Amino acid sequence: MADGSSPVAQRTLRRDARRNRDRILDAARELFAVRGLDVGMATVARRAGIGVATLYRRFPTKEALVTEVFTEQFEACGAVLDEAVDDPDPWRGFRSVVERLSELQATDRGFSAAFLAAFPHPPDVHAGREHALRRFGALIERAKAAGKLRQDFVPDDLILLLMANNGIIAAQPAAARAASRRLAGYLLSAFRSGDPEPLPPPAPLEAHEVR
Fold it and tell me: Which residues does the UniProt record annotate as the domain HTH tetR-type (predicted)?
């Protein structure tokens, strides 16, 4: 009979641990995307169908869970900025950062909160975020030098944009994305030096959706 120290039992335990981890991350992604980071660990455990003690064994803190959930998005954010900086047209690169980050935020309410969160990140995530912000700063300077971006734009204005975009609440994801594109269009028009660009189509929003 196999006991807890046998190779078969150990492999079973590892499979169970991986399965629990995947269930936790899937549940947390779903909850954070819809409700942001104001979701308790007990709620995540219930959605995952596991006990709270099991959740805390895998993720001792909420910060550890949030970081793990959004690792791919952090990497995607860095890739967006790298592509933008490599674009020979600095305004097009700047615009793509604003548009793509706004859309990502509109479809995943937890991501921007995680990116801008004050809690400590592991060194690799913190370094990646700082690298992304430096790349965005370089993109700003290129766009200004090209005469496309107003001279008084500062990197903190991106945070201001994300704060405004985070206020978009719509009943349907498609409406949220449309509203986010419209808002980004208005703000890009304000950021641009010279003649404004045409705005995206209006979003199908209702007054009762205002919170």
Answer: 18-77
Quick check: 199 and 185 in contact, CB under 8 A? Answer: yes
| CATH superfamily name and code, 7-60 | Homeodomain-like (1.10.10.60)
In DSSP terms, 192 is beta-bridged to 149
Confidence class of residue 210 from pLDDT cuts 50, 70 and 90? very low
Domain ranges of the chain: 7-60, 71-209
pTM of the predicted protein model: 0.69
Q: Classify domain 71-209 by CATH architecture.
A: Orthogonal Bundle (1.10)
Q: Give the C-alpha separation, 163 to 183, whole Å.
A: 12
pLDDT, tens digit, for every residue of 122-163? 555 566 667 777 888 999 999 999 999 999 998 888 888 888
Partners of 149 in beta bridges: 192
148: helix, strand or coil: coil
Tokens of 84: 């933008």
- Dihedral angle sign, alpha carbons of residues 47, 41, 111, 78: negative
Burial (Cβ within 10 Å: 0-12, 13-18, ≥19) of residue 200: middle
The alpha carbon torsion through 130, 133, 134, 137 (nearest 10 deg) reads -160
As a whole number of angstroms, the distance between CA 149 and CA 194 comes to 8
Closest CA to 190 of 167, 209, 164: 164
